Structure formats: C-alpha cells, structure tokens
Amino acid sequence: MKKALMIVSVLFIAVVSTACINNIAVQELNNKAAEYMEKGDYESAMNRLQASLDLDATMYETYYNLGIAAINAKKFDKAIEAFEGGIKIKPDYADFYYSLGLAQSDLADEISEITEDKKEITEEDKQKTAELKKSAAENLTKYLEMNPEAKDRQTVEELISEINSFGEAQKNEEEKE
Predict the structure, then answer these.
(1) 40: alpha, beta or left, given left = phi > 0 and alpha = psi -120 to 50?
(2) Which pLDDT does position 10 carry in this prediction?
(3) What pLDDT is attached to residue 64?
(4) Which pLDDT tens digit goes with each residue over 89-98?
(5) Residue-wise pLDDT tens digits, 49-72
(6) What is the DSSP string of 119-171?
(7) Can you tell me the distance from the alpha carbon of 124 to that of 52, in angstroms, rounded to the nearest whole number?
(8) Do 62 and 78 meet the contact criterion of CB atoms below 8 Å apart?
(9) SS3 at position 119
(10) Taking a C-beta distance cutoff of 8 angstroms, is the pair 33, 64 a contact?
(11) How far apart are CA 163 and CA 3, in angstroms?
(12) Do 108 and 132 touch, CB atoms closer than 8 A?
C-alpha cells in the first residue's frame, strides 16, 4: 500500500511539474512574440505563437494574437484559421468576430487584386471573393450584436455597408453577363 501511494505521489508531482514547466514555456513564447510584434517582425511572432499553441492549445488569447500577427504579415488565410480556432475555445469573445471579419474581407480584396493583375477573374475567384465578403459582413454584424456599445460601431457599420455594396455590385455584374 505504501509503495502504491509513493508511486501515485511521484506521478502526481511529475504531472504538476510538467504542467508548470509547460506554462512557463508558453508564457516565455508569448512574451517573445509580443516583443517581435512591437518590432514589426510578424513572421517571428507568428512562429512563437504557433509554438505556444503547440504546447497549450487552450489559450484563446494566443489564437487572437496569432491572428493579429498574421493579418499584419498579410497572411490572411492563417489569420482566419487562428481566429476560427480561438472561437472554438471562447465563442463569446466579440473581438474574434471583428478580426475574423477583417481578415476575410482583406483576403477577398487580395484575391480581387491578384486576379485584376491577370486581367481575368475566374468564376472560382469570384465565388470565393463573394463567400469571403458575405462571411466578413456576418462576422462584423455578430461583433456588433455581441458588443452593442462598441466605440467603433459607426466605423464597423460603414465597413459592413461597404462589403454589402461590393456584393451587390458583383451580383449586378453577373446578371449583365
């Protein structure tokens, strides 16, 4: 009986120690990522934040910070993935929806710019752009619903209106064809 108690005690201490070391490593990675963000080195920040998530994928703040770093690095797919991951953990965090909406809108704009350079927009690009803009408007609307006293309410409403106008213009263009 004493041996079993001793083994359980040692295992418990090992688990607690590992958790503490893991938390220290996660905090260290997040702090380093913040330093990189301040310097404008978003790629390095993203690498640190991803490593942090590899150690502890339960911290919604890390997903949010990864998404912000990815937006700043113009890696909109990665930002969308990070925000969606964070929403799975903390769906009541309004800023996820705001930032996700921005990332989706920015990715749609990027696709449009790339295809305009080619002088020919494929149907697939049109469809993806329309879907992203629609999702962006929905997420920004959800942000406002969750945050009715938002200080940036007017700006967000204008952005939603602009996104919806884009969708209507694209729809009118398709009807002409």
Answers:
(1) left
(2) 37
(3) 93
(4) 999 999 999 9
(5) 899 899 889 989 999 999 999 999
(6) T---HHHHHHHHHHHHHHHHHHHHHHHH-TT-TTHHHHHHHHHHHHHHHHHHH
(7) 35
(8) no
(9) coil
(10) no
(11) 67
(12) yes
| 176: amino acid identity, one letter | K
Would you state the pLDDT for residue 17?
A: 37
How far apart are alpha carbons 60 and 65 in whole angstroms? 9
Domains and CATH numbers, the chain: 19-83 (1.25.40.10), 92-177 (1.20.58)
Q: Dihedral sign for Cα 162, 132, 145, 67, please.
A: negative
CB of 63 within 8 A of CB of 82?
yes
The pLDDT value given to residue 19: 39
Q: Which two tokens stand for residue 164?
A: 């919806």
Handedness of CA 89, 94, 100, 103 (dihedral sign): negative
* Spans of the chain below 50 pLDDT: 5-6, 8-21
Which phi and psi (to 5°) does residue 172 adopt? -60, -40
